[in-house]
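Why does residue order matter? Because the sequence determines the fold. Keep that principle in mind as you read this record.
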Amino acid sequence: MNIPRTIIAAVVVLSAFCGINFYIARRLYQWLGLLSLNMNVKVFAGIYILLAISLLFGFLPLPPGVRSVFAWIGAYWIGIFVYLLIFTLISDVSLFLGSAVRIVPNPTPQSALFFKGLFTVLLTAGVVCYGMFNAGHIKHVSYDILQENASLSGLRIVMISDTHLGAVGLTDRNLERIVESVNALEPDIVCITGDIFNDDIATIRDSGGTATRLRSIESTYGVYACLGNHDGGLTLERMISFLEDCNITLLKDEYEIIDSRLALFGRLDSSPIGGSGGFRRRDISDTIASIGAEFPVVVMEHNPSHIGEYGADVLLILSGHTHRGQMYPGSLVTRAIFTADYGHYRKDSESPHVIVTSGVSTWGPPMRVGTNNEIVSIILR
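Structure:
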């Protein structure tokens, strides 16, 4: 009997998820016992299981308020889970090595087990609290791009990406600070390079206030956007209407000539979550080639996986998507996956410049560890 690979993969992933959670839960329960907190094992298991699957409740047909509560619990739990796993593994391996070289007595004394658990809990709490604090701040990063067109010299492009409107952690105050920071840079062009929404426009708690803030972005030649993989699904049409209402020009494999000086392209994402309706990503190489000689070309391409599709007829590619891994060691993963996962990249003198931002907000856990929320300004020289 041939079992579909998707089923096999699902079973493997589910088994690994259950096994890892059992490992963490068992270590936590053992440590609570050392604290003389004799919690009933069934009560402890019930609480832990609820936390472990809390994010799933956000996708069930429950009342909006209930879904929102579970979405918040689940988002924070993911971050806690990641660091509980890391520090539990580190403490267990350290204790094992200590026993192997006879630094730690065998059998392991309860005092060592107590401090092992304390190490795990305190480090997890410290990193999670730092991550939440750091996610509330926004950095400014600037790049100078050398190019040969004198008419573009001094042009300032301000890029933001991955706002994830409606996501856990993005408050009205954060969005207000983002807009104020963008305006303070006095941009000529503002580019929003995808993942503007967080899968469903209905998760935005104050759509009217959000629209008002986005409409207040100031730019000499306007605000432009492309769609990311989270900008799709059943509410896509409402997303598009929302952007129009915010005076944001959405480019869907289209381009606009900016002040008769450059051509700005916005790409459709290649793998939108929930689909992108009647919109389909197409090959635009011929279109770029036809205008490249007259105007320098700048491309908003949400996912930097596609930078290899462009050649010397493109001056600059603006991307996001990676979040730079958001929480260390996620940055090691994105660095391994993407040719350019963050910062400025150029393959050679015949290739476009590429700027990849870590994004201005968070996705999933509202935490930043080893990375920053950022606004990017690019000055053409």
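The CA atoms of residues 158 and 185 lie 8 Å apart.
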